[in-house]
């Protein structure tokens, strides 16, 4: 669990180990917006007054944070304390999954949710530009900043310069899991698939093949099985499908494999949607 940080000193010791010793365990989402977590090593949100938090040591994650920081779409990395823990900037709004299932989530305008999707894509594009594969793209690893922007976090399993045939070690919630049949493709595709699930949910306010954003584990497993058979759901809103359906299909079928292309196509879809519907982003 994360703890408050009263003070810390930077540690110059680094390690070349690709993966840390942490073995996260999956947790189903709950309605709480203050203490929800999906992985034992994920950022836990509690209402303390300090603005810094620390995670248990994970050498790979620390190396990734040092390599990709600072960026407006990445949770701010402060440093490494004397115990070797990772020190991050505290985000009082918690993770995006908790935020979206909170009682007030239905008040979030569609235009804002699309903007959030663009911001997540921008974070992924930054990682890919650095030759980093997030490898754990899902709502619980996206934090909502104090001013309601999206921040990517949790890089325990992220990879730097992986080869095309790297066997990914990630175990995201099943609804976000990329079909294992996509082998021999640029490994960044796993981030694009996870993003596609997030975009679908932000647009339709439900996960594929479900009616809400709180599917039980057995339901998520069912969704994962459909995806492994390359069966993908469509947006219920035909108007949204008109503007974003092809983009989703390209992501699900990994015709898009890198963040820069993703951002470009998403912005184009958003611009067309905005110009033809008169919707306003917030």
TrEMBL record:
Keywords: Kinase, Transferase. GO terms for molecular function: ATP binding; protein kinase activity. It holds the Pfam family Pkinase. This is Kinase-like protein. InterPro entries: Kinase-like_dom_sf, Prot_kinase_dom, Ser_Thr_protein_kinase. Residues 8-267 form the Protein kinase domain. The keyword Kinase applies. SMART domains: S_TKc.
